[in-house]
């Protein structure tokens, strides 16, 4: 597919300091997209690239959706911006009302942000403030998990469990501890869906509680399925145990659903998928199909209620962003939710998940493949290290791109998370191209 207008290479790549990128390596041999429609990107030199990653886990309804474009355009012309500090406009009220109906239980209040990182830092702040307004201000400790990714704010990298994201940035926020991760190939390699082994790892929370005392712990935050560190599917019973231990000690449980929200697992949210109710849920990405930055935090009734005391004139939570509930983001989100609903995309993901599972597990036995794991429309394919961690993964990414396939790699793990609009023919193409690349990798 050709872009509607020919796009030229930028005159210089120098000024843009690229995020999470080896800038010098990239700029020596760039990979530039010019256009996107449906399941495909088109590069600046006119090549088609199958999107195996929904952009960056966000374009769940596929690219170039006219309905979203029209809603964004109309919104800019009608109301481009209005503040939401001591002022309002209809957009975020209507959107919040619609969103809370999609979540189970009493997750019935929404705080809007502009990204996953902001959602995480917002949720952590709500957790701390919640305990304080209830008179338990000593509960300041936050518990994350090794191999957790919660964005790049100071809160997020503090509870996150990825060393390079943390080690350059000083002492981070104090009073944070980490659960062990659940990744174990000895027990769980080539599991389809949730592994049998590993629920006991949640009991480490008991050890942390014993060490610090429950009266100092505010919240535990985990990704229900860890995406960015290589698609780590929660062992059977693990999330349930975390919930039970949090309940026992009145610790809040936060699910970071920035990746799992909006259909990725074949349910609206992981919360519903696993039948485990957290106290706070963070989302972003798929909320606007990746078109306009937006994030949100869902809070259970009791959490919101705890703040609604004192004089009516008192601001209950000293937190917010200029663009919280931005009119254009709200319009994009409404149009996105319309598409999800009209096209039944979450059900579609569920229906396709066994076909997807069989397809990705067909990679077992190919050179270097030491694990395949999957759930809904997401999969991780782990490659043996070549000796230089990440080198084989990177080579695979570059070769796939040259073959016309966009994958994402974390070290030597390939993550696949296509738009939920994927068809059988795309799954076949993806597996065929990846197989070819894997077979040719040294
Ligand atoms: C689970 C999770 N939390 C938070 C984030 C951060 O989101 P953002 O990049 O929008 O700040 C991500 C991004 O991938 C994520 O996967």
Automatic annotation (TrEMBL):
SUPFAM superfamilies: PLP-dependent transferases. InterPro entries: Aminotrans_3, Aminotrans_3_PPA_site, PyrdxlP-dep_Trfase, PyrdxlP-dep_Trfase_major, PyrdxlP-dep_Trfase_small. The keyword Transferase applies. Keywords: Aminotransferase, Pyridoxal phosphate, Transferase. PROSITE patterns: AA_TRANSFER_CLASS_3. The keyword Lipoprotein does not apply. CDD domains: OAT_like. One of its GO terms (molecular function) is transaminase activity. It holds the Pfam family Aminotran_3. It comes from the Bacteria. Belongs to the class-III pyridoxal-phosphate-dependent aminotransferase family. This is Aspartate aminotransferase family protein. It comes from Stenomitos frigidus AS-A4.
């Amino acid at each position: 597919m050709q872009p509607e207008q020919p796009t030229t290479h930028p005159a210089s790549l120098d000024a843009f300091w690229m995020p999470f990128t080896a800038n010098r390596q990239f700029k020596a041999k760039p990979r530039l997209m010019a256009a996107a429609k449906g399941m495909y990107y088109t590069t600046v030199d006119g090549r088609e690239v199958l999107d195996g990653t929904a952009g960056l886990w966000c374009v769940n309804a596929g690219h170039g959706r006219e309905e979203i474009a029209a809603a964004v355009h109309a919104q800019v012309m009608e109301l481009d911006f209005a503040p939401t500090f001591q002022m309002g406009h209809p957009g975020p009220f209507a959107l919040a009302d619609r969103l809370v109906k999609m979540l189970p239980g009493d997750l019935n209040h929404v705080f809007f942000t502009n990204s996953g990182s902001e959602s995480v830092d917002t949720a952590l702040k709500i957790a701390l403030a919640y305990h304080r307004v209830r008179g338990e201000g000593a509960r300041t400790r936050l518990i994350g998990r090794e191999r957790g990714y919660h964005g790049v704010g100071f809160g997020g990298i503090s509870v996150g469990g990825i060393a390079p994201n943390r080690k350059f940035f000083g002492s981070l926020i104090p009073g944070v501890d980490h659960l062990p991760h659940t990744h174990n190939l000895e027990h769980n390699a080539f599991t389809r869906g949730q592994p049998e082994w590993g629920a006991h790892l949640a009991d480490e929370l008991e050890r942390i509680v014993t060490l610090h005392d429950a009266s100092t712990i505010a919240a535990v935050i985990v990704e229900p399925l860890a995406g960015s560190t290589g698609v780590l599917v929660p062992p059977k019973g693990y999330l349930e145990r975390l919930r039970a231990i949090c309940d026992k000690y009145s610790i809040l449980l936060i699910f970071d659903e920035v990746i799992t929200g909006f259909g990725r697992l074949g349910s609206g949210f992981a919360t519903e998928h696993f039948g485990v109710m957290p106290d706070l849920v963070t989302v972003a990405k798929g909320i606007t199909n990746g078109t306009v930055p937006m994030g949100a935090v869902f809070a259970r009734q009791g959490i919101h209620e705890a703040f609604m005391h004192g004089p009516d004139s008192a601001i209950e939570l000293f937190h917010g962003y200029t663009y919280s509930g931005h009119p254009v983001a709200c319009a994009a989100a409404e149009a996105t939710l319309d598409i999800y609903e009209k096209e039944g995309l979450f059900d579609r993901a569920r229906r396709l998940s066994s076909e997807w599972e069989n397809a990705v597990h067909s990679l077992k036995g190919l050179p270097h493949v030491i694990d395949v794991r999957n759930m809904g429309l997401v999969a991780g394919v782990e490659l043996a290290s070549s000796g230089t961690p990440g080198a084989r993964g990177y080579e695979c990414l570059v070769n796939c791109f040259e073959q016309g396939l966009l994958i994402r790699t974390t070290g030597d793990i390939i993550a696949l998370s296509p738009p939920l609009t994927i068809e059988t023919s795309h799954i076949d193409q993806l597996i065929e191209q990846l197989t070819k690349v894997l077979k040719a990798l040294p």
